[in-house]
Design a protein that fits this description.
Blueprint: E1 46-48, E2 59-68, E3 76-82, E4 93-96, E5 99-101, E6 106-108, E7 114-118, E8 123-127, E9 133-138, E10 153-157, E11 163-169, E12 173-180, E13 183-190, E14 193-198, E15 203-207, E16 213-216, E17 224-225, E18 229-230, E19 236-242, E20 245-250, E21 257-265, E22 268-281, E23 287-295, E24 303-309, E25 336-338, E26 345-350, E27 354-360
Parallel strand pairs: 1-2, 2-21
Antiparallel strand pairs: 2-24, 3-27, 4-5, 6-7, 7-8, 8-9, 10-11, 11-12, 12-13, 14-15, 15-16, 16-17, 18-19, 19-20, 20-21, 21-22, 22-23, 23-24, 25-26, 26-27
Length: about 375
């Protein structure tokens, strides 16, 4: 049974080769509105998440129906990266009580290839877009905790072709791993920050101490406070969660937009839902929001969905998703991604036999 995690920044569990990671407290963030504001009419009605041809209003409340986990549906293609002992396969690690943990997720680089944080084999494993093994980068001893433990999570792809990942060091220091041109390097800086997304140049995340939004130039170990995250098209946004509501702010739209998304159980719209979100952005500024949680009805089930929010504030209905968790899951909030340079989302599941990647091949009606 999935226990609701935190909003946007979540509790990140580790593999057995991983030193214990710190937790990031809940809380929301921002903050400062744009200096130039426009007074507009406010739509106080509640609607369901559907597409519309009308001009979006500045503020709108949308009810999202979240469904029990099922399958990804015909609009998604599945790719599997198997576990095994050979160089061409990913590794697993014993996790106690008979569990075997898989890699700590992976990410798609700008060239379409895949990189996985293969903790059991202490490497980053590199695969072609079609799943064919290419090569790997072994972690040098000085980038492992105590020279032994692989502790990196939440990989992110940068536009220069490099891959970065975050490692927490006792809550006081954060280490940033970078893979570029087949070489692994690392930098450390004070403070615990969970870097959860990127615009391709900067990393964006929240501090462990007070959940304040920050950004980081991967070449400069100084995190700076900010008011907004930045999407891959350069537009600003912020997504925060407060119990059963998700607040989405888009200050760079023609009219600054705010969308309040109400999480509800699909079987009964009167039953609220609570959970966690992951957010990634497409090349055109579209936001993808992956939601997973539980209905507050006492029913022993998990629910979720994938929601699309267009640059104009249009909110899609939640798309039903497969269970993103398994007994091999390390617990990192790194299920959601978008192929760089596109508007094509994917969802990654660390399964019991291998890593499954579901890529959307049919977007259906645009939001």
């Amino acid at each position: 049974m999935f226990a609701p995690l935190l909003a946007v920044v979540l509790l990140c569990a580790c593999s057995p080769q991983t030193a214990p990671s710190s937790t990031v407290p809940p809380g929301s963030t921002p903050s400062t509105a744009p200096a130039d504001t426009t007074t507009t009419a406010v739509d106080e009605t509640t609607t369901t998440g559907v597409t519309s041809t009308t001009t979006p209003t500045a503020e709108q409340t949308v009810t999202l129906a979240l469904y029990p986990f099922s399958s990804m549906g015909p609009g998604w293609a599945e790719q599997v990266f198997l576990y095994g002992e050979s160089e061409e396969t990913l590794g697993t690690s014993p996790g106690g009580e008979g569990l075997m943990f898989g890699p700590d997720y992976g990410v798609q680089a700008t060239d379409g290839t895949w990189w996985f944080l293969d903790a059991a084999k202490q490497r980053l494993a590199h695969f072609a877009a079609d799943g064919t093994y290419i090569d790997h980068v072994l972690m040098p001893e000085d980038l492992l905790v105590d020279g032994i433990y692989f502790q990196y999570q939440m990989p992110q792809p940068l536009t220069d072709g490099s891959i970065v990942a975050t490692g927490w060091r006792g809550g006081e220091t954060t280490s940033l791993l970078r893979i570029r041109d087949g070489t692994a390097t690392g930098i450390s800086f004070d403070g615990g920050v969970a870097w959860v997304t990127t615009d391709g140049s900067y990393l964006y995340g929240h501090t462990a101490e007070d959940n304040a939004p920050h950004r980081l130039d991967p070449s400069d170990p100084v995190a700076e406070p900010i008011d907004w995250f930045v999407a891959r098209d350069g537009s600003r946004y912020m997504v925060t969660v407060n119990e059963d509501e998700i607040l989405v702010e888009l200050p760079d739209a023609a009219v600054p937009l705010t969308r309040t998304l109400l999480m509800r159980y699909s079987e009964d719209s009167n039953v609220i839902a609570r959970g966690a979100v992951e957010v990634e952005t497409a090349a055109d500024g579209t936001l993808y929001v992956l939601i997973y949680g539980v209905p507050m009805s006492g029913d022993p089930l998990d629910i979720g969905g994938l929601v699309t929010i267009g640059p104009d504030g249009e909110v899609s209905e939640a798309v039903e998703i497969a269970n993103p968790f398994s007994s091999a899951d390390t617990g990192s909030p790194a299920h959601l991604g978008v192929t760089p340079g596109t508007s094509d989302p994917w969802i990654m599941v660390v399964g019991e036999d291998g890593i499954q990647v579901f890529s959307q091949v049919d977007h259906g009606p645009s939001p």
